[in-house]
Design goal:
Helix content is about 30%, strand content about 30%. With about 350 residues, it is an alpha+beta fold. Strands 1, 2, 3, 12, 13, 14, 15, 16, 17 and 18 form a ten-stranded mixed beta sheet that branches. A hairpin with a 5-residue loop joins strand 4 and strand 5. The radius of gyration is 21 Å and the shape is elongated. The two termini are about 15 Å apart. Bound molecules: zinc ion. Zinc ion binds near residues 190, 191, 224, 245 and 246.
């Protein structure tokens, strides 16, 4: 049996839109709403939200087999306003460990609690080449020295507060999305690429009139980057959980941008032997290019569910992402391999 064809244009269009919606952990509501709206066109799905704000889409079918689930997350790295500096600039507290050097000179939006947004940019506090010359290069890129320069008239704490900014307001870094020659570049392909994989798989199956072999829950998580996204929201009747999240590409890794990867072990633990073998067999049956790999600094939402007491078989698959948690890049080959793997799983029973 061959897999339904993937609508490439649809995938890219959906992913680019999702990437351009700011969604640092804690402020992922608009991205969740966007995915909800997209999935609402598929009448096969029953949509709901958890109290924590995750989106759950159930595709129910008539089957004696117990339901399964897939999860991917829309929340990303980001920051919140930590302090007002004397000159009216902002010190930040990072969400999910964004690396400061990767966002130096990046554009940011500050989202106030009143729903306004104010533009700015990230700089070191020794930015001017005509004042600090080479010394700026020596400045440590850390919480102390990185600051937001607001594109608003302020030279004091008081003036910054008067703009409506408060301590704790969300700070989102520009995603800088670019699609060139089969490659997709963006700051937050982790894990929006995989949310798009799931949505594209649902669309391909729905368009061709196919249904999963057993009922399935799609869990779109909103707190993954702080470690507990899927700890809640996976129903107890689920017997298998596939976490769809990026594969680590770089020195010492087997993964690449042109394949999908089955992660056997990451720094938080090992995955489920039986379900891993089921995923390998599906990839081989459908000629899906895949690698197996071990990720050095990585934990997944599936593991969050396990730690919370979830009793499921668990596996982790995803497309290779170069320079993860930095300026990330994927290729459509790895992306398509992942979408195909999801469809192969859903149709397999
Ligand atoms: Zn991720």
């Amino acid at each position: 049996m061959s897999l339904p064809k993937i609508d490439q244009e649809y995938f890219i269009d959906f992913l680019v839109k999702l990437l351009n919606i700011a969604s640092p952990t804690g402020f992922a509501g608009p991205a969740i709403d966007f995915v909800e709206k997209e999935l609402s066109q598929f009448k096969q799905l029953e949509l709901s939200k958890t109290r924590k704000g995750a989106l759950v889409a159930k595709w129910e079918v008539n089957s004696d087999l117990s339901p399964v689930a897939l999860t991917a997350h829309v929340d990303t790295l980001g920051a919140v306003v930590k302090e007002f500096k004397k000159k009216g600039r902002l010190k930040l507290s990072r969400i999910g460990g964004i690396q400061w050097p990767t966002v130096e000179t990046e554009g940011v939006w500050i989202f106030t609690s009143k729903g306004e947004k104010i533009r700015g940019s990230m700089l070191i506090d020794t930015a001017s080449g005509h004042i600090y010359s080479g010394a700026g290069g020596e400045t440590p890129r850390n919480d102390e020295h990185m600051e937001v320069r607001l594109d608003a008239r302020t030279t004091s704490k008081k003036e910054t507060r008067a703009l409506g900014i408060n301590i704790g307001d969300c700070v989102a870094f520009d995603p800088r999305v670019e699609v060139t020659n089969g490659f997709i570049r963006s700051r937050f392909l982790d894990d929006k690429a995989c949310v798009a994989n799931i949505v594209a798989a649902i669309k391909s199956m729905a368009d061709t009139g196919q249904s999963p072999a057993r009922s399935v829950y799609f869990h779109i998580s909103n707190y993954e980057e702080v470690g507990h996204g899927a700890a809640a929201g996976i129903p107890a009747e689920v017997v298998e959980l596939i976490t769809v999240d990026m594969a680590v590409v770089g020195m010492g890794q087997e993964s690449d941008e042109f394949s999908a990867t089955l992660c056997i072990k990451d720094s938080a633990g090992v995955y489920h032997f039986g379900l891993n073998n089921k995923m390998r067999a599906l990839a081989e049956k459908h000629n899906i290019p895949y690698k197996t790999d071990v990720y050095p600094f990585y934990g997944s939402d599936g593991e969050a569910f396990w730690r919370a007491g979830g009793d499921v078989a668990l596996a982790l698959i995803g497309p290779g992402i170069d320079a993860s948690h930095n300026y990330e890049r994927a290729h459509m080959d790895g992306i398509n391999a992942t979408t195909n793997w999801i469809m192969a799983y859903l149709l397999s029973g």
